[in-house]
Amino acid sequence: MLDAFLVGLVVFLCVGGHELIGFSLLFRPIVVGPFLGLLMGDVQTGLKIGAALETIFMGVINIGGASAAEPGLATALATGFAIKLGGGVDAAIALALPIGILGQQIKLAIYILFSGSMAPVFDRLAAEGKQKQFTYLHFGVWGIWFFAYSLIPFFAMLFGANAVQAALNMIPEVIMNGLSVAGNLLPAVGMAMLLRMLWENKIAVFFFLGIVLVGYLKLPLVAVAVIAFIGAILIAQRDYQLNKLEKAKTAVAVQAAANVDQEEEDFFA
């Protein structure tokens, strides 16, 4: 019961909090996993699962009406099941993707239900200038909406742990090994999807520089991050000086044109 409550609480605070206070990224796996791991007494597993799922969901983006997956709910349930059942990161990754896709569809259904039913009320309060009632209704709808949404992981954790454990026990070892291999590949797929959206020929040199630093020179990620930070500062300073020089050239050209105009006016005066 306590584990189910903690999973539901994390979904309410992280996913709901993200929707309440703006684009805070509280729903991201890198936040949800360690937070739930801290509450359930296994921070290390929470960190591992959160980092692994973040690299997967990093490249998953909802565009318009095309919904992909809900990473917050997926991470909470995957982390909760992994810690409670001892399945580890591989089992969590195998569970996260289908849970995330289903969770996104349920979230959209709840959203459409609440938005469709409450939109006329919001319009009426706004037209009548009832600001306090509008604000109270806003927070009330938010609380009811995400309370209902957090009941999904609560009951899934409460009644589904035994079913998930039985299903995991029924999976042959060869399939679990395959899932483990696939799970190790999924972070690379997520990074590739993100890189495909961000790729430009101008940044290709930095991409291959990172490969050399990590793959051949065996530098730790902290050292690579420091090098990247220093490089970013140098590039920013260079761009600043170039912009400053360009502005100076523009100012000189404008002044020269003004002097020519003045000389012409003096000549014809």
TrEMBL record:
It is a multi-pass membrane protein. It is found in: Cell membrane. It holds the Pfam family EII-Sor. Its main location: membrane. This is PTS system mannose/fructose/sorbose-specific IIC component. GO terms for cellular component: plasma membrane. GO terms for biological process: phosphoenolpyruvate-dependent sugar phosphotransferase system. It comes from the Bacteria. PROSITE patterns: PTS_EIIC_TYPE_4. Keywords: Cell membrane, Membrane, Phosphotransferase system, Sugar transport, Transmembrane, Transmembrane helix, Transport. The chain crosses the membrane at residues 51-69, 81-101, 108-127, 139-162, 174-199, 205-235.
